[in-house]
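Extended Data, panel c. Modelled sequence:
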Amino acid sequence: MTTSTEHARLLRLATRASVAVACILISAKAIAWWLSGSVSMLAGLTDSALDGVTSLLNLLAVHYALRPADEDHRYGHGKAESLAGMAQALFIGGSAVLIALQAFERLKHPEPVGAPWLSIGVIVFSLALTLVLLMLQHRVIKATGSNAVRADSLHYRSDMLLNGSILVALVLAGFGWHQVDPWFGLGIAAYILWSAIHIARESFAVLMDEELPPDVSQHMLELACSVPGVLGAHDLRTRISGNQWFVQLHLELPGELTLSVAHGISDQAAEAIHSAYPRAEVLVHADPQEVVKAARAQ
């Protein structure tokens, strides 16, 4: 588990690297598209331009999400990451529509692809640079669990496939198969749209306080019940905000325990869950077992 300082450093490093890579690829693909007129290259340029916008949004969102909790935001500002993910999904979906429209136009009015080998060189460079960025993002996601970086990484993984498809289309165009280019553009547009839907679903789940996976919740209950003195646990509730998990549950304890002893057992249960899931902030409420039994009997 990273410290808060290291966590912030890694997030800032990943988001700044993403913006830098997007800017470099926009410049390279703009030159290649201007010289080639390729619809597939236009798809890559449009995607990289939107990468730049969404990466900048991520940079701003992460900066805001790293702010500590305050009186107006007691659970912190972590959901700014998911808002950035939703914005990414909208931009990515829009790019898919624009690419599809351009591809349909090229199918109706075919044109040869110019300077295909220059474009091929740009795409190979894009693949290499994107791969380096993905390696960095994987390290950051593993260390921080950031939703914003995960959404950005998903987008750049789709870019790898997109650029690979563009490379195939350009190679075929170089050998005279010009009609393949708009068809690849349509396929790329469909894949980008699918990626946008996937990102939107993940971000929406966080914004709507979707529960953690059932196996994780069950394990948390088992950890709480494993603490000596705990007779049972119920009403486990979970939610995600940025890098933090918020967990609430009720413990069933013997009614004759003193308040100090019950408090100590509750702290042990919270620590058991936190030790297994360092991202979890755990709030425990102690219930006398007799009260729980009476409530269930009604």
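The longest strand covers residues 232-241. This feature is highlighted in the accompanying rendering.
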